[in-house]
Amino acid sequence: MSSKKIYERPIITKNQSGFMNKFGSSSLVKPKVEIDGVLVKDLVDKWGSPLFVISEKQIRSNQRNALRIFKSRYPKVQFAWSYKTNYLKAVCAVFHSEGSWAEVVSEFEYQKARRLGIPGENIIFNGPDKSDSALLNAINENAKIHIDHFDELYKLIELTEETQKKANVAIRVNMDVGVYPKWDRFGFNYENGEAWQALKRIITSRNLKLIGLHTHIGTYMMSADAYKTATIKLVDLAKGLKNNYNLNLEYIDLGGGFASHNTLLGQYLPAEEVVPSIEQFADAISSGLFELSGSLDELPTLILETGRALIDDAGYLITKVLANKRLSTGKRAIIIDAGVNILFTSFWYKHKIHPANETGVHTEESAIYGPLCMNIDCIRESIVFPNVKKDDLLVIDYVGAYDMTQWMQFINMRPNVVMIMQDGTVELIRKSEDIDYIEQQEILPATLKNFK
Amino acid sequence: MKNFIVPDNIAISDSGFIFLPSTGETFTLNEMGKEIFKLLQAKKSLEEISSEIIKEYDIDEHTLERDIEDFILRLKSLNLVIQV
Ligand SMILES: Cc1ncc(COP(=O)(O)O)c(C=O)c1O
Q1: What is the per-residue pLDDT for A20?
Q2: Is A326 on the interface with B (CB under 8 A)?
Q3: Full-model pTM
Q4: Total structural domains in chain A?
Q5: Best label site of A391, A402, A428, B66, fewest CB within 10 Å?
Q6: Which CATH fold topology does B4-83 show?
Q7: First-to-last CA distance in chain A?
Q8: Of the ranges A267-276, A327-336, B27-36, which one carries the lowest mean pLDDT score?
Q9: Which residues of B touch A10 (CB under 8 A)?
Q10: Confidence class of residue A2 from pLDDT cuts 50, 70 and 90?
Q11: Domain map of chain B by residue range?
Q12: DSSP string, A337-375
């Protein structure tokens, strides 16, 4: 035995002259054996595969870093955690314990924030869909209601008159910030004067208290300059309110949208090299705020609803290799146990994917597919990846944003989610689903019970 | 059992480098890939290749069979072998 030579699987690689970087250099594919000091293998032994893992430490460090960067440029800054980005209780609790408010876009999200003990006044209620009962509740609890359209504005006037209650409101403004696609579906338009109209209508209503201005110019924004433009336009409205009505706003809310470090599918260079840093976004916004004058007391608070940039890199998905295949084209395919239904962001990101073990140095262009019996279940069309075998574990990076809210229960159950706490212990924060959980919502009509 | 041959105009260097004159494409093989490719060039059958490797290397028959199968499929798709 020992006299025999060490075997390595036979491999052939096609050389691509001047094109070596097409799939990202293979040096990017480094094994990831542990997350925050916990072995990937141990995590799977205990909690199964696939498994979402969230790092408490990373969330806190992201949030503190962002707050420090903004506060060093503008004195009054408040973050509001964007619930839709990840509304697992444990995740929201970490953000809230760092001082963040809640930014919600539905009655469901509003309730989630309230159940975590967030007072109404620290909840920003956005979105085009707020039912009468949701609005009434938000009025009663002094939530900050961001009005999306005139129908909502008139509904609020009606509700506050009926109940003789005051509502704290802001309007969402949409505008041209020079980027495509232009988000003009939400809120009132700046350029055509609609936003100003709405503000005037609020000021003349007895029971609406105008406290802020809001915009959210898009998501995964690659231009810091767009934020400067947006800030200047909101500041212009704020100055108009001051000059015409002597009104000082409590806050200006620039929404979310900072790009995270995930690379988009069509993007050639890695995101780290092309997306603006938080510092650059902060520079752009604070330079727009310079136009504001007045004492510190009069200055509005800058609110930020940053989502993906604060959590993407705090989330990992561990997955197991089910099989290796050769496609008819000769390309290698790796089948893993996590599908697009739980990794929704694979529709727009080229996630970094690592083997969880040391592998040979040879790599091969491969496709990575999920386990669903569906052609769309492609995690990655093409990646240069080392050889992995059945039952090997892989770690997919940067899945903290949107995957754990937009995931779908399809064909199989959604998996466990654990959080690695600051002290290195691991806590289960969402149990994997089982058949009882899925079926408890179903009702089989009596007439269908005894089919034979 | 199927057998495969390497077209005569394809050469492999000692370092495991292949140049395909018809298309200008080049390929790199690892040690084991080079060994198997040379055995294919020497017109050995898959059984012969397999037993030669098992003699010399620390590998079980099933894994080797799968690996060779996969490797040949890949060579076929790159037009580096022809089935006979
Ligand atoms: C109103 C609002 N605020 C904040 C966010 C968070 O955005 P992001 O995750 O891009 O930072 C969103 C997401 O689309 C949003 O619609």
Answers
A1: 43
A2: yes
A3: 0.86
A4: 2
A5: A391
A6: Arc Repressor Mutant, subunit A (1.10.10)
A7: 62
A8: A267-276
A9: 29-30, 32-33, 35-36, 67-68, 71
A10: low
A11: 4-83
A12: S--TTT-GGGGTEE--EEESS---S-EEEEEEE-SSSST
